[in-house]
Every structure is written in C-alpha cells, then in structure tokens.
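>> Question from a student workshop board

For tomorrow's exercise we were told to take the sequence and the ligand below, predict the bound structure, and bring the output to class. My setup keeps failing. Could a helper post the expected result so I can at least see what it should look like? The ligand is adenosine monophosphate.
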Amino acid sequence: MADCLFCKIISGDIPSNKIYEDDKVYAFHDIDPKAPTHFLVIPKEHIVSCGEVTEEQEAVVGHIFSVITKLAKEMNLGDFRVVSNCGESAGQTVFHLHFHVLAGRNFTWPPG
Ligand code: AMP
Ligand code: ZN
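>> Workshop helper replied:
Here is what the output should look like for this input. Compare the format with yours to find the bug.
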C-alpha cells in the first residue's frame, strides 16, 4: 500500500534490521526498543490492525504466531510478551498490523 511505512520496509524501500522473512510474513527489530529484545512481526499483506482481520486473513495471522514461536525458541527469548496496539487510543502509530515481541526483562501488568 502506498504511503505505508511497513509496506515500504517489506519492499526494501525503507531499510530495516530483518530477523526473518517468508512468503507471508516479515520480522524485524523495532527502531526504538522498549526491552532488551524488541522486534515486530508483520504480514506482507497490508492489514490495517488486529481490528480489521477478515476470515480470509485468518491463516496469515495464525502463521504469524507459529513464526513467533519459532523465533522465540531460536533466539532463546525465555519468557516474552506479545502486544498488538489496535487503534490510536490503544497506542497504534503505524496502521499496518504488527505484533510486538518483547523480551529480556520483567514486565508489569496492566500495561499503561
Ligand atoms: P505501534 O505504536 O504499536 O503502532 O508500533 C509501531 C512501532 O514501529 C513502534 O514501536 C516504532 O518504534 C516502530 N517503528 C517505527 N518506524 C520504524 C522503522 N523504520 N523501523 C523499525 N521500527 C519502526
Ligand atoms: Zn502496509
């Protein structure tokens, strides 16, 4: 999608620190990490948020979670947190679905 930061990262128009890529999913380190390990996992298909997922897109969202499991094991994350901010009031700033994966410190609950 034109003018989408994460679509431009997927296409390589904007550089990123890539961790993993396959035909459906792209994972890269967050530019402003909020934990010792903080990366984002995104679908290559432009989906606005986790509030806009259609039945046709169920498979890619499921796949994202098997990729998160695989990366968590390979990277020896230990315990970790997965976050998806959905909408501006929930903290979403980039409107291309993404799952934050954070690890390497203790986390409090509830989040702010
Ligand atoms: P959110 O605020 O939940 O929409 O998350 C967007 C995330 O994208 C933030 O954690 C940003 O630090 C991150 N981000 C923004 N621009 C870039 C970039 N060029 N490369 C990597 N991460 C980015
Ligand atoms: Zn996009």
